[in-house]
Design brief:
Keywords: Cell membrane, Membrane, Phosphate transport, Transmembrane, Transmembrane helix, Transport. It comes from Metabacillus rhizosphaerae. InterPro entries: MetI-like (IPR000515), MetI-like_sf (IPR035906), Phosphate_PstC (IPR011864). The structure is a single chain. The protein contains 12 helices and 2 strands. The chain has about 325 residues and is an all-alpha fold. A hairpin with a 7-residue loop joins strand 1 and strand 2. Helix 4 crosses helix 6. The termini are far apart.
């Protein structure tokens, strides 16, 4: 009889414990969506706040400087109070020059590395090479900047004697080296996700390994590859420290890579370092430049989404 009572008590305790756990789980289940919603809302509000700040401060800048001058003037000399000129073209040309050089360096090397890792390398080789590539992405950009200034530029001056100490060629190459891991890693992931049945089918039809790679795998993974290219371009456009250290601070409308230039990000760094007082036109100009940079990045992201959708529809 005593044993039966003990068993009954134990069963009651188990039922209570189960109900308690269920109640706790229900509370957690109800709280989790709310917490996740708040976190998502914070990220959205932060983005909205950044965009609104850019818009309001840019409007203040254009209340002092004509937008026509901003878009059509060829010179950018904001620090001359009496004859200041605000032609964004000078900064845009420097930014595009760095970006084009970086993409010329990064795209073929990054894509070749991705093809090798995905289609030719053994598992052991892939486990060794891929982490080494990804280590490049973890190097601080200021280190890349000093590498460009103290190593790459003197090396290039032996080949191009007229190359200035501060130029677009050296930081462009180093920015390209910096974004190689991004392009290689994302492209390799896209190619690795292609089903093996497609490889096996192409090989069964008599295709060589190179033909399978170039005519089957790369087209099938093109949406991911294009996305990696666009992300690399966005990263190159937004790079700051490398171009600030090795590119110079000479805003000019030129596409000569041997000359000193200034990018949009480098100008923002220069002014943010204390070269302009709060509330001045020069101070507000960094928001106008930042808005231009934001629009560049936004257009690239929209273009990447459009291209990715088109390739998905075709393949």
């Amino acid at each position: 009889m005593a044993l039966t009572n003990k068993q009954n008590v134990s069963v009651r305790d188990l039922i209570k414990e189960k109900k308690s756990k269920n109640s706790t789980n229900q509370i957690v289940e109800k709280m989790v969506p709310g917490v996740l919603f708040v976190l998502a809302l914070i990220s959205i509000l932060t983005t909205v706040g950044i965009v609104l700040t850019l818009i309001f401060e840019t409007v203040t800048f254009f209340s002092r400087v004509s937008i026509v001058e901003f878009l059509t003037e060829k010179e950018w000399y904001p620090f001359f109070e009496e004859s200041a000129t605000y032609g964004i073209g000078a900064l845009v040309s420097g930014t595009l020059l760095i970006t084009v050089i970086a993409i010329i360096v990064a795209v073929p090397i990054g894509l070749a590395a991705a093809i090798f890792l995905s289609e030719y390398a053994s598992d052991r080789t892939r486990r060794i090479i891929k982490p080494i590539l990804e280590v490049l992405a973890g190097i601080p950009t200021i280190v890349y900047g000093f590498f460009a200034l103290t190593f790459v530029t003197p090396l290039l001056q032996k080949v191009v004697p007229d190359l200035a100490l501060f130029n677009a060629l050296s930081p462009g190459i180093v920015v390209g080296i910096m974004i190689i891991p991004m392009i290689a890693s994302l492209s390799e992931d896209a190619m690795s996700s292609v089903p093996n049945s497609m490889r096996e089918g192409a090989l069964a039809l008599g295709s060589t390994r190179f033909e399978v790679t170039m005519k089957v795998i790369v087209p099938a993974a093109m949406s991911g590859i294009v996305a990696s290219f666009v992300l690399g371009i966005s990263r190159a456009i937004g790079e700051t420290m490398i171009v600030s250290l090795a590119g110079g601070a000479t805003p000019k409308l030129t596409f000569d890579p041997t000359e000193s230039i200034q990018t949009m990000t480098a100008y923002i760094v220069q002014v943010s370092g204390g070269d302009a007082g709060y509330g001045t036109t020069v101070y507000y100009s960094i928001y106008a430049v930042g808005m231009t940079l934001f629009l560049f990045t936004l257009i690239l992201n929209l273009l990447a989404q459009y291209i990715s959708r088109r390739f998905r529809e075709e393949y």
